[in-house]
Amino acid sequence: MALIKKGSVFTLVGLYVLTIPFFNAMNVTSYDNSQILGHFGASTTAFTYSTYIPFFAMIGFLPLGMKIGKQIPMRTMILSVSFLSIICNTASLFTNTIEWFTVWRSLLAILSIIGIFATIIPILLKYNPTFNMPILYGIVQFILQGSKQLYQYFGTQMTSVHNWTFGIYFLNVNFLLAIVLAWIFYRKDVAPMKSPFQFDWRGWGIMLLFFMVILFLCAEGQTRNWFSDPKVSMAAAFLLLIIGIYLIHVRFTKEPLINTDVFKYKNVVLGSLLFFYTGMMNGTGSVVTGFMTNILGFDSIYVARTHLAILIGLFIAIPLSTYLLFKRIYLATLWVTGFACYGMYHMILYFRFYPEIDASDFFGPFIFKGLAIGFLYPAASLYISEKVPKPLGDSRMMSGVISRAVFASLLGGAILGTFISNMNVQHKTGLSQQLSEVNTEAKQQLDKSKKVFMLNGLSAWEAQKKAEKSLSNETSKSAMMLAYKDIYLVMSALCFFPILILLLFKLGRRPIGSVEVEPIPF
């Protein structure tokens, strides 16, 4: 396949820029959920499903997207996917129900997966560097993680111009740019990785069923109070049954979707665990966002702008970790540094949960978060791929994606929400018990609020009720902040724990080995 001048930096940059809109199809409206919910007037449960379904559609379509991305000529593929993405993206603006909005968003998510593979394959073929795989993985992680923060910020800025629909238009402009870049950088319309189409349809069906059960647990586990509800218990049991059925399916399938033989490689098992762990540590970001919006009252632009501090850490850590991996530094060095940065991020924020905190106080911990991502993500992606033969490359990738995205980020995030709610109730009960005549500070604050309301013309009874409600609201905020502090204290301990294990058992004291699988570096 002929691109512009071979080895050209201009060509390489153009090819990578072409991947960015497909990586970020779901990120543009990240901070606009409240506007979308208000626009459709849907119930909280329906909106929760509409948030989860596109992501599960994206992950569920991943295996088939890889196959399709190899079969159709590259130029045709990118032009078609970009055009169809514009249609689906625009259609989501003109729906009247949350159900149809979810359908169009899910189709957009599926198209983005095909677009990712269609745009990344030429890079792998042109710059397939078995001698410098860390560079390839580092570049992709740099683009993936960095563009995520930028798209969330720019999408929020576009939304502030009018409403959430401007963020959708902004994404359409990006897909139009992808069409232009495809015309520039793809001279021949060929499918260089095309092979006889073989796909494990039965295994894919089992996997989709598995994801549907996880989707139910994510969307309704917390509202149903998890295992106290018989439907949740039944879903968990069904989940184990599905896993058993898939294990039987693997024994009678020549090329299964996820070949369990991949777990014979120790680095795949430990790498999947590392993917889960990093996904879990990164997933607490929703707690900070909730703190900013619900307690501090930051608007979405303020939240998005503050999160740009993560880019500083990424700009430092990813190039540095990529260079060190290329120079064959010990894996343990990067892992210890990454876990320490995650620990510092959680520990510093533990002391930041108090009222009237300024946005500048978040910059330090967010820089540490960016550093942690930069040191851990490229190393984890390389480690899980180490010495895995090419036929097991897709299985290796899916095990990592499911560990980080499905179990850690999506299901883990739902479980984290339950922990926060339970701790919030405990703290609120404890604080409410202190609101008595014996507590002089609470009584003085109540009397002061009552006098203010009476000066505003309310009767003594109305002023008393208003003052009690005001004090109760302050108690609720205090309880929530205590719950956040508990979560971040526990997470900081969990971040530093792997460092102890690595040092105590002298693990990872070697450089990265050979990575020769067909590299899908995420």
TrEMBL record:
Keywords: Membrane, Transmembrane, Transmembrane helix, Transport. One of its GO terms (cellular component) is membrane. It is a multi-pass membrane protein. The keyword Acyltransferase does not apply. It is found in: Membrane. The keyword Transport applies. It comes from the Bacteria. The chain crosses the membrane at residues 7-26, 46-64, 76-94, 106-125, 166-186, 201-219, 231-249, 269-296, 308-326, 332-354, 366-385, 405-425, 487-505. This is DHA2 family multidrug resistance protein. It comes from Flavobacterium aquicola.
